Amino acid sequence: MKTFRIAIAGFGGVGRATARLLLSRRARYRQVYNADVRLVAVCGSRSGLASTDGLEEEQLTTLQEGLSGPAFIDESRADVLIEAGPTDFRSGGPGLAYLRSALSVGRDTVVISKGALVHSGRELRRLAQGSGALLKLSGAAAAALPTVDLVQHSLKGCEVLSVEGILNATTNYLLDAMITRGIGFDEALREAQAGGFAEADPRNDTEGWDTACKLLILANFGLGADLDMDDLRVEGIQSVTAERIAFWRGQGLVPKLVGSLSHVDDTFRAEVGIRTYPLADPFANIRGKDKAIRIVTDAMGETIAIGAGKEPLATAAAALKDLEHILETRLAVPR
Ligand SMILES: NC(=O)c1ccc[n+]([C@@H]2O[C@H](COP(=O)([O-])OP(=O)(O)OC[C@H]3O[C@@H](n4cnc5c(N)ncnc54)[C@H](OP(=O)(O)O)[C@@H]3O)[C@@H](O)[C@H]2O)c1
């Protein structure tokens, strides 16, 4: 039985959910892959824990000060890093140092935060290619909604002509509440904040940046584009008024914040903004915190996927789907 050592950097809601799910699936990994999967290190910004024999869930409640950082992960001799730190696409965030360190030594990596992939995606792809490390990022590209996997596996071989995605749960919740219940933006936002799924500072979601990050990651890592954030036109929902909502309702239209890609001259034009859909369109019926993607290809026509997973479990499961892809690859083609 082959041993796979896993480390998790970033141990908040998603990192902890990923650790719990990983530990609960160890019997599956033994049965399906004949693999002894061990959680050998976890860390937050200032503290962590490590054990070469593998950590158990009850040990994860108390972390030790000082055990953190890329060098700490390196010392754990993990085969796979799962990175779940905060997202900051303007600087790359703390994830960037972890990813540089892991990918440059050939450590397979599952990325959940978006910042480093948006800020330094080109460099990270080069590092992975150079060292032979696998770089997986479902958790950063709308997580439980399949996006990159859809184009790379289900639609393999087809030319993608266009993509439309409702990629941000918070903005979908807000627009849905405004159009179906007639409440204003501020009231809908207060509801979402009270429900714990909108940040105290919601601008990353409401101004369209979270959607833009996911779209850019899908374009660059899934479709071979080479876009920077400056290439995207990004519009949010913060200025949607009661009058515009009333107008759309009168017309039988449903507004959605959509990230879109269209194939133009061998590359993709990318933008984020409000699109409206007639009631018969599946996108008009994506409710609450659900997400959706519609991809049009040359040979398979139109494909739509809808995701309604509960967070943070769904994101943890998306990251562990990536881990299983890594196990499959490494067991088929050992290093
Ligand atoms: N929440 C979701 O449903 C969801 C869905 C998809 C993707 N994501 C992405 O997943 C990531 C994590 O989200 P979350 O909700 O778990 O956030 P969170 O609860 O704020 O957790 C972030 C974690 O990152 C740690 N961290 C900060 N700086 C670090 C450093 N230098 N080294 C190591 N760890 C560091 C924090 O440590 P301390 O505890 O020490 O501060 C904390 O444990 C984000 O990038 C988010 O965009 C989240």
UniProtKB/TrEMBL annotation:
One of its GO terms (molecular function) is homoserine dehydrogenase activity. Its EC number is 1.1.1.3. Pfam families: Homoserine_dh, NAD_binding_3. SUPFAM superfamilies: Glyceraldehyde-3-phosphate dehydrogenase-like, C-terminal domain, NAD(P)-binding Rossmann-fold domains. It is an enzyme of class 1 (oxidoreductase). InterPro entries: Asp/hSer_DH_NAD-bd, HDH_cat, HDH_short, NAD(P)-bd_dom_sf. Keywords: Amino-acid biosynthesis, Methionine biosynthesis, Oxidoreductase, Threonine biosynthesis. Residues 146-323 form the Homoserine dehydrogenase catalytic domain. It comes from the Bacteria. The keyword Heme does not apply. Residues 10-133 form the Aspartate/homoserine dehydrogenase NAD-binding domain. Pathway: Amino-acid biosynthesis; L-threonine biosynthesis; L-threonine from L-aspartate: step 3/5; Amino-acid biosynthesis; L-methionine biosynthesis via de novo pathway; L-homoserine from L-aspartate: step 3/3. Belongs to the homoserine dehydrogenase family. This is Homoserine dehydrogenase.
